[in-house]
Amino acid sequence: MNPIILNTEKRKIYGKKLRSLRKMGILPIHVYGPGMESVSLQSDTNNVLKVIQEAGRTNPVKIIDSDKEHTTLVRNVDQHPATGELQHVDFMRVDEDKAIEVEVPVVLIGEAPGTRGGAGTVTQAIYSLSVLSKPFTVPSEIQADLSVLVDLEANIKRGDLILPDGVELVGDPNIPVAWIQPPRVQEEVVAEEGSEEGSEEGSEEGSEDSSQSEESGDKDN
Questions:
Q1: 31: Cβ–Cβ under 8 A, 6 or more apart, which residues?
Q2: CATH code of residue 49
Q3: Distance CA 64, CA 47 (A)
Q4: Are residues 112 and 54 in the same domain?
Q5: Are residues 155 and 128 located together in one domain of the fold?
């Protein structure tokens, strides 16, 4: 994987003066991580936007300032609550040779045979997966193949997902990721049938009780 490059400069403006910096099309950024002090930098806002769109939260970004290079991951993107404009971005420095824990999106692919003919719909419960991986081997996504969902009994668990070499699952492998949910109409029909059976049983019991009461009355007379 080729690193994504972001050229930056040392930042000397802080606090309330950052507003004027943003108006000039320059965005404040921070780089932090183990074994280093937090570094205040700045870069062209449009360049930063392109970088975070390309990198997402899983692809490494090589930040270059005047005298150092930092291998990082995007960690926090602060946007204006009303306009959505970028306010600042935090990058976490990582060691290229050490595995880190990262959340990777889970993407459903293919078609579930068990949904044909209106037999149900696919339900996805997990949208990201925690994995351990070195920065440059982190996958951009993990795919879940729906072709294994052949009926209502089948499901895809976290441990069923195929991970690239060098990537390790974090957490319980038995948690379901996706399955086929039966149609609501079918569930309602079953519920109604159960209610009707209960009503019929209640009516029969009521009739028996009524008959027994009448017989007791006849004997008393």
A1: 38, 39, 41, 63, 70, 72, 90, 91, 92, 93
A2: 2.40.240.10
A3: 13
A4: no
A5: yes
- Name the band, by pLDDT with cuts 50, 70 and 90, for residue 206: low
Is 54 found in the same domain as 128? no
Domain boundary among 93, 112, 139: 93
C-alpha Rg value of the chain to the nearest Å: 30
Cα–Cα dist 202/196, whole Å: 10
Higher pLDDT, 208 or 143: 143
Q: Which two tokens stand for residue 124?
A: 């996805």
pLDDT for 189: 53
Residue 104 pLDDT > 60: yes
Closest to 11 measured CA to CA, from 25, 32, 34, 27: 27
Residue 151 dihedral angles phi and psi, to the nearest 5°: -160, -175
Residues with Cβ < 8 Å from 43, sequence gap 6 or more?
Answer: 6, 7, 8, 9, 26, 27, 29
Is residue 214 included in any domain, yes or no?
A: no
Number of domains in the chain: 2
Pair (70, 151) in one structural domain: no
The DSSP symbol for 167 reads -
Residue 115 belongs to some domain of the structure: yes
Domain hosting residue 37, numbered range: 4-93
DSSP string over 10-28: E----GGGHHHHHHTTEEE
Q: What is the pLDDT of residue 119?
A: 85
The model's confidence at residue 27, banded by pLDDT at 50, 70 and 90, is very high
